[in-house]
Amino acid sequence: MSAPDDLDEILGTAGPKAAVLAEAMPYIREFAGRTVVIKYGGHAMEDPALADLFATDVVLMRLVGIHPVVVHGGGPQISALMRRLGKEPDFVDGQRVTDAETVDIVRLALVGQVNREVVAAINRHGSYAVGLSGEDAGLIRARRRDERLGFVGDVDHIEPEILHSLFRDDLIPVVATIGVDDAGQHYNINADAVAGAVAEALGAEKLVYLTDIHGLYSDVDDPGSLVSAIDAAGLVALRDSGALGEGMIPKVASCLSAVRNGVARAHILDGRIPHALLLEFFTREGIGTMVTP
Predict the structure, then answer these.
(1) In the CATH hierarchy, which fold is given to the domain comprising 32-292?
(2) What is the pairing mode between strands 152-158 and 95-96?
């Protein structure tokens, strides 16, 4: 093998890449064998380029020994399918009214469409992903939230054994957020809540929310007020101050519950940033907002 003509030029391009890999090593060691639950949604799911980068990140995490679980919703896809079938979406206090016909459409959209798409995206990088819903092996037990909302549910119990079984085979579970009650009735459940409940049931190292904002702000009108790290007490104070947007409330509630019930850290990241997961997991600076107990 001949020597390079311009060693400085080679080092100028390769050196920073090598430094990044060296920086990642202690984090790879720290998280190897640990479980991470990722709530996947927003623009990161809808943009094909970002969806492929997300799939790449998740596969890389699995290859370095981390056990990722992907939990997804699909509100826009549900609404689009409802309209195609001639049914206009109806909301009460921001929550989808889900009658008997709508819950079947929700199952079709989440299990039959979105879940298949996420699994396929991951498996383009290797045969690792397995699609599930809360119906499978009793994974998500649900209870009705509010009679006005119909078949909208809250998580009653997570049975994690099927997830542990997939981990033992080095597979990546991809979970659609349909739950069932003891009578076999299906419920549409908020994906943020499911992700938090799964993280608690697994004793996950991290719970990660991919969103369409950079993280939490102490002042929503001030881009410079991003909160990079906060503990549970500080997060309660921030929530109670009214500084958070309505869309952040379910995520914040899940983060608080998770870090109070055995999850080491919760993160709110901007999924529009390419390789957001890798930047958070494997660099010193990280991105977004980290919540600790």
Answers:
(1) Carbamate kinase (3.40.1160)
(2) unpaired
